[in-house]
């Protein structure tokens, strides 16, 4: 897996095709083997977008949840394109948080 980021906040994740999902051929197996995502600056921003998407009547399989160290939900755009809206705690935030803990108090 490779994660590419730019200064504008675009993040592109590239991974190998998974055999159990039919490689990269999503049409022949009738499953989504890819998705697009929009990372948000905070967990609260994810919740706000969830409410907006929900009120618009979009197909949302599950509400936001803790997933892989972050907070996200998935929904389907027209054409059954899987969309992720998420927030992920950055490593720099974790390091700064740990450095701010006073272990001697």
Summarize, please.
This protein is of the alpha+beta class. The chain has a single domain (2-99), classed as Signal recognition particle alu RNA binding heterodimer, srp9/1.
Give the integer mean of the pLDDT values.
78
DSSP helix fraction? 10-25%
Distance between the termini: 41 Å
Calculate Rg over CA atoms: 17 Å
Oligomer: single chain
**According to CATH, what is the class?**
Alpha Beta
Commentary on this structure:
The protein is α+β, with helices and mostly antiparallel strands and 105 residues long. It has one domain (2-99): Signal recognition particle alu RNA binding heterodimer, srp9/1. It has helices at 26-29, 43-55, 91-99, and strands at 2-5, 11-14, 36-39, 65-67, 70-77, 81-88. Strand 4 (65-67) and strand 5 form a beta hairpin. It is globular, with a radius of gyration of 17 Å.
């Amino acid at each position: 897996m490779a994660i590419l980021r730019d200064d504008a906040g675009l993040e592109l994740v590239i991974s190998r095709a998974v055999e159990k999902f039919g490689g990269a051929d999503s049409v022949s197996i009738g499953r989504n083997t890819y998705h697009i995502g929009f990372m948000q600056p905070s967990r609260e921003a994810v919740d706000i977008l969830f409410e907006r998407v929900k009120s618009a009547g979009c197909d949302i399989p599950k509400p936001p949840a803790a997933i892989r160290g972050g907070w996200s939900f998935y929904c389907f755009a027209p054409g059954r394109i899987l969309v992720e809206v998420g927030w992920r705690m950055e490593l720099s935030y974790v390091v700064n948080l740990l450095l701010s803990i006073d272990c001697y108090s």
